[in-house]
Amino acid sequence: MTSRPAPDQSLRDLARLRCVKDRIDREYAQPLDVEALARGAHLSAGHLSRAFRRAYGESPYSYLMTRRIERAMALLRRGDLSVTEVCFAVGCSSLGTFSTRFTELVGVPPSVYRRQTGSATEGIPSCVAKQVTRPVRNREAAVPARG
Predict the structure, then answer these.
(1) What is the Cα 132 distance to its own chain's centre?
(2) 107: left (phi over 0), alpha (psi -120 to 50) or beta
(3) Looking only at Cα atoms, what is the longest distance across the chain?
(4) From CA 89, how far away is CA 37, in angstroms rounded?
(5) C-alpha to C-alpha distance for 59 and 26, rounded to whole angstroms
(6) pLDDT grade, residue 30 (50/70/90)?
(7) Is the separation of the CB atoms in 1 and 24 below 8 Å?
(8) Closest CA relative to residue 68, chosen from 95, 89, 41, 38
(9) What does the angle CA 28 – CA 118 – CA 70 come to, to the nearest 5 degrees?
(10) Please, are residues 71 and 26 in contact by the beta-carbon 8 Å criterion?
(11) What is the average pLDDT value for the chain, to the nearest integer?
(12) Cα–Cα separations (whole angstroms), residue 53 to 14, 56, 63, 143
């Protein structure tokens, strides 16, 4: 017996993982947790976490928080909501956790981001502003070339 899943099982797992990822993209503002996502995909929470990380390079929770922070960035650029309102609008239930995660991904606290980007993206189409201001994780940051 081998430890590798059969090809058909792997394809089924990938399809389920894609459904989980799509659900996170659609329902990021809803109260989601790994257990609920796993139930919806008919997987155990542990299996979902391991398989999601293998397939996408990060945990389902990390992916969810990245989606929430990306949406928060767009709302903060708009400028008509407070940081607290944005926190709850994107599905976070703790302002402290939201601010900490935002700062980790973006590099500045949400209040500073809101102040700095208000005029910086003015006149730029929102689709371009979203791409330019996308949060960059540490592992995605470019490594400086050695000369």
Answers:
(1) 16
(2) left
(3) 61
(4) 20
(5) 17
(6) very high
(7) no
(8) 89
(9) 20
(10) no
(11) 84
(12) 12, 5, 10, 23
The string of pLDDT tens digits covering residues 63-92 is 999 999 999 999 999 989 999 999 999 999
Residue 11 in tokens: 């394809």
The predicted model scores a pTM of 0.74
Give me the phi and psi of 143, to 5 degrees please: -90, 125
Q: Which tokens is 6 given?
A: 């059969």
Q: Which two tokens stand for residue 106?
A: 């973006």
Q: Do residues 135 and 101 touch, judged by C-beta distance below 8 A?
A: no
pLDDT, tens digit, for every residue of 125-135?
766 666 555 56
Tell me the residue length of the chain.
147
Q: How far is CA 74 from the centre of its chain?
A: 13
pLDDT for 12 equals 83
In this prediction, residue 107 has a pLDDT band, given cuts at 50, 70 and 90, of: very high
pLDDT of 34 strictly over 70: yes
Amino acid at 69: I
Determine the Cα–Cα distance for residues 6 and 12; give it in Å rounded to an integer.
Answer: 10
